[in-house]
Design a protein that fits this description.
There is one protein chain. The protein has 1103 residues and is mainly alpha-helical. It contains 54 helices and 30 strands.
Length: 1103
């Protein structure tokens, strides 16, 4: 990263601290700044050129040495530079050593508490993550001070963080011995100290190369197949490198042990297709071979691995090991052996592995040099061999049948394609006479068939008829149990051997297989096959292994049938319509399935739980079915009329089992006694409301809710709310009694007059909610009248007599209705020193004491009256005043123009609380002194004000005022009338050369002369740097003013040639270097400079 421009202080720090040999520049800077009182280290680094995103190693060590006064000592600056990191894209150099970029980091602080306690300065070797322990104290290097995140250089002090955690008080944990040894080696080599026992590592070019080598060796020792990044996340960099250092420290013994572990562990990856040293040592062998040549470290490792490979690994002849010379082994190579056998090399390798010529069980590789005698022996075996397909064709059976005969030992095989599944072989090589030998053994000495005996059938057909494996029948024939009766001369292969049906039938049967298959168990129990597989997976049934399959043990079907039952079985047992009926009954009884759904396809219950529940449900149903029906039973419509309810409500009551009923094939009936008993025990909300004298049921529901009486049933289950009659009537009667008492109290207090909120608001002239605020504050009194809380008339009268609202006083300022007078009176009374008794925001409006307010207003208006009476002429003149709107109409100007004339002082007015007045004399004075462009256009017969202002500009008449102070230009009337009279006497004045071409420039002309954008000219005028006038809608600049502007200021593009740049921004940057800043930079779109300052810089550059 490139260094930023240094903006350091001008003078060195006054207080100097001594520099240590292994202290980097950023450590010295922090220590010196802290010693001199600086506490904002982020600002300190910013002063020395570090921007956001830069690391502290970017600080310049020469500047740090100068401002920390380290250069006062001989060689001090060189010492700071040597101890500071020098970074390039790939490496970090410190002293005479070099690290890889990822082996050194200053992102966070790292420290040894004991070292800081002895000498409080930062050691540069702490900044490599491979130094995890202090070599002097044997404790771990600390990275966290106790804050949520590790401390950073810009947010810490020499011995503490900004939160006050002292680094010297950090926990001191003992470090592992080999991590201490590794840290000592890194420190001593970095500082150039002697290391007599590390000559092998010292032979590597740099310390970074040595650390990388230790990393790789440590990875191979801990877990070669895990990957370096994964090990770093789990163990840390230092632990991996320390393991590598331990092996190198014990070289070569420990290194040989590492190689032994790699060779013993090379079989974990079954599908690793590599072999030889690559399979034995993996990628570690490749790394050792890539170590630098003619280097003691690399040569030593390669020598050991070559000797180890010769003794422990099957090596391919002619191939090098670890980059050394190739081995020459005895024997013949595989390609020669393949040619000798008449097969291709690709086919020979699996044949050699299957026949044992190559040790297929060895995981250390395969030899490329073979024993010649064994090759000759294998070649003799393979002479005249046939494939499985050829033998199957000769025997007239399927190729799969040949494989079964090989399994049964009836046909010998040179190479069995199923014997080496790990190497994925599928090669079948059989002796050429295998088929003929088998047939001859079967039919030897047997007579030929005449073809007339129908009892004789080929043995290949017999095994299908009697469902016996072919290999079993052939074995019985060879054993003498089954005889070949004849030979079919016209048949082929095994079809030549004919057996008798009667002999095959008389053979003893096959012993039955123990247990049941899942499908047999499913058929016997009445389950789905997938349900049985789920039961087996969940160990619900007991199984045992039989060969390659598992079968359910004998007796398990009877046990399962006695313990469990499906819904289908239970429905048949208890005569229920279907399985869902069983599930509904058991669910209502709280019986759950024995196995959860949907994991199991079918629903299965424990018989011990399901059968009692179903028996009880069936008995209850039978009892109800056999019970006699009432003689005068009521259907739902009759029951509804008898109970005073809706028919739908009766149906819901029966469904909720609140009303007893007798089920019928279609519908139900209710006994009259049950209906009457139900209504005697329950009352509807409507009935209870009528008891209260109310029409709506909601009145009774609210009363009962407050009384804590819960309904028996209600919405949404039922459209009618039913309550327990006794409790509900007691609550209603209690409510009625309380209501009569309130009525008596209201009757007693009815003699006291009251006002409603609306009536009281009209009396007091306040909003209703203001009355509530006054009542809460105690200004008004309320009395309970039924549900209402009216105000007493006496309290309202007392309030009106003692207090007054601000809006009631509006009549005193000429507003009899008080409209919009509250704020005016409030401001006036406040100015007169009257404090309100009620104010916002606690109250809706202001309230004053009536006597204080009236007295203050009387004094105020009395003073005003005396002043008017003392000056009758002023009073008469005021009576003649007109409003500002009328004055604007008389002068023929707009309202916006009138306001701007008043604001700028051209039109004098008298301001009153509610309006602005203008005297007729002032209107006459303004009309005699000034004239507008519209009036000028009417005077000279022009159609627009722009034509009038253009004519006046050519006649040399300038406006008195104009934009932006006024909406349009205003001219001096006598000057205009004199110019117009001269123009009318001599119209040739207008024909003369245009004065604006000589004395004026338009804004566009100025922009073109300045070579800038059009918006620059209005910005200059707005900033007050360029004077201008307005002619109608056009802006004109006097030539004199433009010349004065050019002599004072200059645009940056004017000096591009002088600075040798091709853009105006280059001029601006060059002037900024010399300290020349633009004028009004925040208000102008382009850079503008003072001409004298720019010319001074240009003259200096030329000198």
């Amino acid at each position: 990263m490139a260094k930023s421009k240094i903006t350091s202080p001008r003078w060195p720090y006054p207080g100097r601290v001594p520099h240590h040999a292994d202290e980097p520049a950023y450590g010295l800077l922090v220590r010196t700044a802290y010693h001199n009182g600086s506490r904002l280290m982020y600002t300190v680094f910013e002063k020395y050129g570090l921007c956001k995103g830069q690391t502290v190693w970017d600080v310049d060590p020469d500047i740090v040495a100068r401002f920390c006064q380290a250069d006062l000592v001989d060689g001090g600056a060189d010492a700071v530079r040597a101890a500071s990191p020098r970074v390039d894209p790939k490496h970090v150099a410190i002293f005479d050593e070099r690290f890889l970029r990822d082996q050194f980091s200053v992102l966070h602080r790292r420290w040894c508490p004991a070292c800081l306690e002895e000498k409080p300065y930062h050691r540069v070797w702490w900044d490599t993550p491979y130094v995890s322990a202090c070599p002097d104290h044997g404790i771990r290097i600390v990275e966290n001070c106790g804050c949520a995140k590790p401390p950073k250089w810009r947010r810490s002090y020499p011995t503490s963080c900004t939160e006050g955690h002292d680094f010297r008080e950090s926990p001191r944990e003992p470090a592992p011995p080999w991590e201490i040894a590794l840290s000592r080696y890194i420190r001593d080599r970095l500082l150039g100290r002697p290391r007599p026992g590390d000559a092998l590592l010292d032979s590597l070019p740099s310390l970074g190369d040595a650390i990388a080598a230790l990393d790789r060796i440590g990875q191979a020792s801990l877990d070669e197949k895990a990957g370096l990044m994964k090990l770093r996340r789990e163990l840390g960099r230092a632990a991996i490198a320390a393991e590598g250092y331990r092996i190198i420290a014990g070289f070569p013994v420990e290194f040989e042990r590492l190689l032994d572990r790699l060779v013993a562990d090379d079989g974990k990856q079954k599908h690793d297709r590599r072999w030889g040293v690559e399979k034995a040592y993996g990628n570690f062998h490749i790394w050792v071979g890539e170590l630098p040549k003619d280097n003691a470290f690399g040569d030593a490792l390669r020598s050991v691995i070559r000797d180890h490979a010769r003794a422990n690994v099957v090596i391919k002849s002619g191939h090098a090991v670890a980059g050394g010379a190739a081995f020459d082994l005895p024997g013949i190579d595989m390609a020669t052996a393949a040619r000798a056998m008449g097969v291709t090399f690709e086919r020979f390798r699996p044949i050699a592995s299957a026949t044992g010529l190559i040790p297929g069980d060895s995981l250390r590789g395969r030899p490329a040099r073979l024993d010649a005698d064994k090759v000759d022996e294998l070649a003799a075996k393979l002479k005249g061999n046939k494939s499985r397909q050829q033998i199957a064709k000769e025997l007239d059976i399927a190729p799969l049948g040949v494989a079964k005969l090989i399994r049964a030992g009836l046909i010998p095989a040179i190479v069995d394609g199923k014997t080496d599944r790990e190497n994925r072989l599928n090669i079948w090589i059989l002796p050429g006479a295998a088929a003929c030998d088998l047939v001859e053994r079967l039919v030897a000495g047997k007579p030929a068939s005449s073809g007339e005996n129908e009892d004789l059938i080929p043995i290949t057909i017999a095994h299908k008829i009697f469902r016996r494996p072919l290999s079993e029948l052939l074995r019985l024939v060879l054993d003498g149990t089954l005889s070949i009766r004849a030979v079919d001369p016209g048949a082929k292969g095994l079809n030549r051997a004919l057996v008798s049906k009667s002999d095959a039938t008389a053979m003893p049967g096959r012993p039955p297989r123990p247990g049941l298959s899942p499908y047999e168990f499913a058929r016997e129990i009445g389950l789905h096959a997938d349900t049985v597989h789920q039961l087996i997976a969940n160990d619900a049934v007991q199984t045992e292994a039989t060969g390659r399959v598992r079968r359910i043990v004998d007796g398990e079907a009877e046990r399962f049938r006695a313990t469990y039952a499906t819904t289908t079985a239970l429905s048949k047992e208890f005569d229920l319509p279907k399985g869902r009926s069983v599930m509904a009954v058991l669910n209502a009884a709280g019986v759950r399935p024995a196995f959860p759904r949907p994991s199991f396809r079918q629903v299965i219950y424990l018989r011990a739980d399901a059968e009692p529940a179903l028996a009880a449900a069936v008995a209850e149903a039978a009892r109800k079915k056999n019970s006699p029906l009432p003689a005068n039973g009521l259907d739902r419509y009759d029951a509804a009329r008898r109970m005073g309810l809706d028919a739908f409500v009766v149906t819901r009551l029966v469904a909720e089992k609140l009303l007893p009923a007798y089920k019928l094939p279609r519908g139900f009936i209710v006994a009259p006694d049950d209906a009457d008993a139900f209504m005697r025990a329950h009352a509807t909300s409507t009935e209870l409301a009528k008891r209260m004298g109310k029409k709506r049921a909601a009145a009774s529901i609210a009363v009962l809710r407050r009384a804590g009486v819960a309904p028996v049933v209600g919405p949404p289950t039922c459209s009618v709310t039913l309550y327990p009659r006794t409790a509900a009537e007691e609550a209603i009667d209690a409510h009625i009694g309380a209501g009569l008492l309130i009525a008596e109290i209201n009757e007693q207090e009815s003699a006291e007059p009251v006002l409603t909120a609306i009536e009281a608001s009209k009396e007091i002239r306040a909003m209703p909610w203001m009355l509530g605020q006054l009542a809460d504050a105690g200004f008004l009194e309320r009395r309970r009248r039924g549900r209402g809380l009216p105000f007493t008339r006496d309290s309202v009268a007392r309030f009106k007599k003692a207090y007054v609202l601000a809006n009631e006083l509006g009549a005193l300022i000429g507003r009899p209705d008080g409209r919009k007078g509250g704020k005016t009176m409030t401001d006036l009374l406040t100015d007169l020193g009257v404090e309100p008794v009620c104010r916002r925001p606690e109250f809706q409006t202001f309230v004053f004491r009536r006597d204080e307010a009236v007295e203050a207003l009387a004094r105020h208006f009395a003073t005003q009256a005396d002043k008017c009476a003392s000056d009758t002429a002023t009073a008469e003149a005021r009576a003649k005043l007109v409003t500002l709107r009328e004055a604007q109409r008389r002068l023929g100007i707009s309202s916006n123009m009138g306001s701007s004339l008043v604001r700028e002082g051209f039109l004098r007015v008298e301001k009153h609380p509610s309006t602005i007045l203008v005297s007729p004399d002032e209107i006459a004075r303004f009309a005699a002194a000034y004239i507008t462009p519209d009036a000028i256009a009417s005077m000279i017969g022009k159609q627009s004000a722009i034509a009038a202002t253009t004519l006046l500009t050519r006649l040399g008449v300038k406006p008195v005022a104009g934009p932006p102070q006024l909406r349009f230009q205003l001219f001096d009337r006598p000057v205009v009338e004199h110019a117009i009279s001269e123009w009318k006497r001599d119209p040739s004045i207008e024909k003369r050369p245009s004065r604006d071409a000589e004395d004026f420039l338009y804004a566009g002309d100025v922009a073109r002369r300045l070579k800038t954008i059009d918006t620059m000219v209005p910005a200059l005028i707005q900033a007050g740097l360029l004077r201008a006038d307005t002619t109608g809608k056009a802006t004109i600049i006097a030539r004199v003013d433009f010349d004065a502007f050019q002599s004072e200021y200059a645009m940056s593009n004017e000096f591009m040639d002088a600075f040798g740049v091709g853009h105006a921004k280059g001029v601006t940057k060059a002037l900024a270097v010399h300290g020349v800043t633009p004028v009004a930079a925040d208000r102008l779109p382009r850079a503008l400079f003072r001409r004298k300052e720019v010319e001074r810089v240009v003259r200096g550059m030329r000198r």
